[in-house]
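Example record

Each entry pairs one chain with its bound ligand, 2-(butylsulfanyl)adenosine.
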Amino acid sequence: MTETREPSADPTALDEAAAQRRWAELVALVEEDQRAYYELDAPKVSDAEYDARMRELEALEAAHPALVTPESPTQRVGGRAAAGFATVEHLERMLSLDNAFSTDDLRAWAARVNRDLGLGPDDRAGYLCEVKIDGLAVALLYEKGRLVRAATRGDGRTGEDVTANVRTIGSVPQHLGGDPASHPDVIEIRGEVFMGVDDFDALNEKLVAAGHAPYANPRNTAAGSLRQKDPQVTASRNLRVYAHGVGALQWTAGKHAELERQSDAYALFEQWGVPVSPHNRVVAGLDGVLEMIEHFREHRHDIEHELDGIVVKVDALADQRRLGATSRAPRWAVAYKYPPEEVNTRLLAIQVAVGRTGRATPYAVMEPVTVAGSTVRQATLHNQDVVRAKGVRIGDMVVLRKAGDVIPEVLGPVAALADDGYPREDFVMPSECPECGTPLRAMKEGDVDLRCPNAESCPAQVRGRVEHIGSRGGLDVEALGEVTAAALTQPDVPETPPLRTEAGLFSLTLEQLLPIEVVVRDAETGLPKVDDDGVARRRAPFRKRASHTRAARLAAEEAGEALPEHEPSSQALKLLEELERAKTKDLWRILVSLNIRHVGPVAARALADWFGSLDAIRGASRDELAAVEGVGPVIADQIVEWFTVDWHLEIVEAWAAAGVRFATPGHPGPEAMAAKADEGPTGPLAGLTVVVTGSLEGFSRDGATEAIVAAGGKASGSVSRKTDYVVVGEGAGSKEAKARDLGLPILDEAGFVRLLEGGPAALEA
Ligand code: IVH
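Structure tokens for the complex follow.
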């Protein structure tokens, strides 16, 4: 580690050059600390020293904002101080793959490739065949051989910065190996992060042994492990990576490796120590591809990770360039997908669940079985007509598969096992709501779905709505998940729940929470767990443990003392505190929380942006609502209808009385918005589209976007003929090249500032 003077001078007293030097020193130190801490598991400094360095860095950046770059440890996850993931822009778009679901699809793809390359039908293009790893894509950015950034795919243009977490993956080199002369200036290596099946099984065994629920499948576990706020958790998960492509690539002029084929790039990766799948094969022509497909159809479960298909790529890079890509996927590659796996299992029961909207949905309860990598015990049967159409009876052996390998689906009974002696029973759709006893009915003529019409107080519906309020797309109240929503709406004690509807949610008190007790149920069977003495075990989620454990009770009794006073659990305090904070969250979140049919985050944002308050929404006519972009007539009808129901209005009143804010402060109201829309955009950049690429000194990425929009312009992420200006910062790549190709005006940061202030005219001056 480099020696340096510590502690430093007052950051505000340093001149720019000295500040820059000290900043670079601190960044190097902090990065070194982080590496030692997270990767080597051998911290070099104490936590206090580390924190002091981070604080100095923050103070320095506060005093000299120009120093803040996206690479600064203050901006990244995994600094022990930072939280959340920054968004990063991929140097080149991360595309997806088109699928082929049959060998005919595959032949058709190959024929198109041959045609577009001007090859005869018998010409045998060289294909690179790879197994399709069931994991998640990442882009690893190496500059001069050093790993500087790792990002998830995200929407293909921007992803999440997961550098700190990826650095904990042992097989990802921090520095490329091999001959340094072979390292490009910049290379974005794309690959798949995955969890091996053995590691997945071992992790689940440990979890189950510790009394936790197991994870569903390796893919989700890998994704969850990569997106941990604490890189140490990621480090403990044994994630792995196989590289499967190259994104941006820049060499110093005159010096570059001879790459003719994608398989040559893989050979180079191997020299650099970047892992590549051992299952890749280069084949000549389609026959070789089909052979590989048949091989892995048989041996799907014989390799180290889960796979869901075979990826076929045209190997020659010149041909890849000629074939190009659509907006979604390259034309030079295709993913052959194996059909979903099917298994047999016993249908033990058909139960009926009532959801947030009152719909009564029958679902199959089955003997647990593993299909496509995860254990399945339940599957929806949608409605009584579907049950009939599938011809299943309770007690049947049924065929189960995962549609799209995600959602389990019962296909039908196994005909050959119809007479296996197991008792059978026909399913009868209940005529009453299983939770509140209200007769079920179709809400509209011709509706197949039956619903519970007791929307106001059916516990299942209230529970669903309350859970929805706490969800990420609603008020994002972490302490208000499924279990808490159930405890608030259907506790076993007291008989009358604190929430009969959601109206009381924001006026919940500790006095209401403390008495709540719920029966502990087995996650698998749903049956109550029973203590040794035959009593159903109960949990009081909102009380501190000690005051109600048997030991504490016995001790109190023995000592002839009153039971210790109930003290609130951290869950109770957190819930109340989070609800308090939720009262002033963005208006769109409050709108989502009202559970108006079809008003999800997208429509809610549109409504909030336009109207600025619930009063304005309520005062608007159906047509005014429908005219808002992103709303439309169907949602408009639902909103108008929603306000005609008394108990809905009671919710609004109760929430308002509890301090919920139903307006966006400073919003000018819909009239002002309409007037502004008529005028069209104003400002120096009105009508102009600007692309910013590379990093600027005085603007973060979001800051640049905001500045463009504030000046009346449109900020875009991609360069096209419609782009008016391209602003080029440090480290710009392919977008700059494209802008030059198209002959678009290119600005440096100073030009950008002039454009923002004075519009195009300021550039000519
Ligand atoms: S190449 C431009 N190769 O599948 C082509 N992708 O369904 C980019 N995947 O987003 C992908 N194994 O995350 C490629 N051997 C492999 C792959 C693979 C898994 C994933 C990748 C991609 C997704 C598309």
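The CA atoms of residues 117 and 143 lie 34 Å apart.
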